[in-house]
Design a protein that fits this description.
This protein has 3 domains: 3-72, no CATH class; 103-320, Oxidoreductase, molybdopterin-binding domain (Sulfite Oxidase, Chain A, domain 2, Alpha-Beta Complex); 329-450, Immunoglobulin-like (Sandwich). With 453 residues, the protein is α+β, with helices and mostly antiparallel strands. It has helices spanning 3-8, 22-31, 35-50, 57-63, 69-72, 166-170, 199-203, 216-223, 249-252, 304-307, 418-425, and strands at residues 103-104, 115-118, 136-138, 151-156, 162-165, 175-182, 206-215, 232-237, 244-248, 257-262, 265-266, 276-278, 291-297, 312-313, 319-320, 329-334, 345-354, 360-366, 374-375, 377-378, 388-396, 401-409, 438-441, 447-450. It has a 5-stranded mixed sheet with strand order 5-4-13-8-9. Strands 6, 7, 10, 11 and 12 form a 5-stranded antiparallel sheet that branches. The chain starts with a helix and ends with a strand.
């Protein structure tokens, strides 16, 4: 994202001249914003706008005798006919948002058709990821599968082996639920102390959507699954890589969905059209796309995709398998790496938090590298196994700062610093890094990725 783009979106901001006293700044940074402080800030902004000193060029124009031409003069869109829906039958973003796209990281995959595309978290608002910006991880490319030809088989420890068409599935009772999906390798480069520049690359294998489909429990009941003997589920995809995953039924039986819908429309091809498994709280590789078979079994399947990949190499040389739950995690998205604060003053610091074990209970933010913490505001809705947006008020005084966020979920789990995680897991892992992320702000306002504690 360019500085011009980010400034327009409010991510690179130029605050008014700093009109607060040092005592007022210290009070706000310590205690946050209440109604009294908001009133003070509002009055201060009005005073700053009326000052002839230190104003930006746009404010100077507004205060000058000539006035602001963007207000006083008719613009072309005010004097001509606009386009109609026939020119854009499926809505697309504004041309001024063209820089906000998924981005690949060359070299992360071994197969040319495989890909990793990162969601631009720095440019999103709220908690829902637009379908066109949902992160991608393909193991052998994506397909446009004819839904009339797609089938789902359910077999194994069931009374009735069944094959469902899409029409069969869409006639069953359905639900719509909002959940996050995170690749197990998200933030993986940080294990090796590789400071990739932006939050899109550090945390962008993360998205959150409303998924629609039939609950897994309904399908298993329809087939008469033996849930006393059957403790595991094998999910098999219809792609060329033959993606297969073992899933612990105890972890997912109550909330897993066999889904065809995402954010009110059918799944996109790159996200598994026409059918995928949604496994809330579990790493994204288990959300098998182009889902073609579910098998109920009594032991883990040790498939190629879990015996070799997506396990954690520990300090003693052994590998941890089936560590699928995505632990509590958070990241500040604004300001974040690659952005720049253009002036001293007030900023809204914003980010995302999530937990594979339930709801986020609290998020603390530090502006001094973890020495002191303040509690952020959790914006509603706060949902189980979904992204939660947090915000906190901050006045930057122009000195260097290190911004961090630390999430706590409803089980009491506290997001760890990177040193604590490395002490337990070593430095040779790739997956399941949920350590605290640090962003350094230099004297010139530039934000960069650093690792602290």
């Amino acid at each position: 994202m360019t500085q011009v783009d980010a400034k327009r979106r409010g991510q690179i901001q130029q605050a008014p001249e700093n009109f607060l006293t040092q005592d007022a700044i210290a009070d706000l940074n310590k205690n946050g914003m209440d109604d009294t402080r908001r009133g003070f800030m509002r009055n201060g902004f009005m005073a700053a706008l009326g000052s002839a000193v230190g104003l930006s060029a746009s404010v100077n124009a507004l205060a000058s005798s000539e006035g602001d031409p963007a207000i006083l003069e008719k613009q072309v869109w005010q004097t001509t006919l606009g386009k109609n829906v026939a020119t854009m039958p499926y809505g697309t973003p504004s041309i001024y948002e063209a820089n906000l796209i998924r981005r690949e990281s060359p070299g992360l995959t071994r197969v040319s058709a495989a890909s990793v595309a990162f969601t631009p978290l720095q440019g999103l608002f709220g908690i829902i990821t637009p379908n066109g910006l949902h992160f991608e991880r393909q193991h052998q490319g994506w397909y446009n599968i004819d839904p009339e030809m797609h089938r789902l088989m359910v077999n194994g420890l069931v009374k009735h082996n069944r094959v469902f068409t899409m029409n069969d599935l869409m006639r069953l009772p359905s639900v719509s639920r909002i959940h996050f999906i995170e690749c197990g390798a998200n933030t993986g480069l940080e294990w090796g102390n590789v400071a990739v520049p932006t939050v899109q690359y550090t945390h962008g294998m993360l998205s959150c959507c409303e998924f629609t489909g039939v609950p897994l429990s309904v399908l298993l009941e329809e087939c008469g699954a033996d849930l006393k003997k059957g403790k595991y589920l094998l999910a098999e995809g219809g792609d060329g890589s033959g993606m297969t995953r073992t899933i612990n039924l105890d972890d997912v039986l109550n909330d897993a969905i066999v889904a065809w819908g995402m954010n009110g429309e059918m799944l996109r091809p790159e996200n598994g059209f026409p059918l995928r498994l949604v496994v809330p709280g579990v790493q994204g590789v288990s959300w098998v796309k182009w889902l073609r078979r579910l098998e109920v079994g009594d032991m883990p399947y040790a498939t190629k995709d879990e015996a070799v990949h997506y396990n954690d190499l520990m300090p003693d040389g052994l590998a941890r398998q089936y560590t699928s739950i995505q632990e509590c995690k958070s990241v500040i998205t604004t300001p974040s790496g690659g952005q720049q604060l253009l002036d001293k003053g007030f900023y809204n610091v914003s980010g995302l938090a999530w937990s594979g074990r339930g709801k986020v209970k609290r998020v603390d933010v530090s502006f001094d590298g973890g020495n002191n913490w303040r509690m952020a505001r959790l914006e509603t809705p706060v949902l189980t196994k979904a992204l939660t947006r947090f915000n906190i008020d901050w006045v930057w005084d122009g000195s260097p700062a290190i911004l961090q966020s630390r999430a706590i979920d409803e089980t009491g789990y506290v997001q760890p610093p990177i040193k604590l995680l490395r002490d337990a897991r070593g430095t040779r892992s790739i997956y399941h890094n949920n350590a605290i992320q640090s962003w350094k702000i230099d004297l010139n306002g530039e934000v960069s990725n650093v690792q602290v504690g």
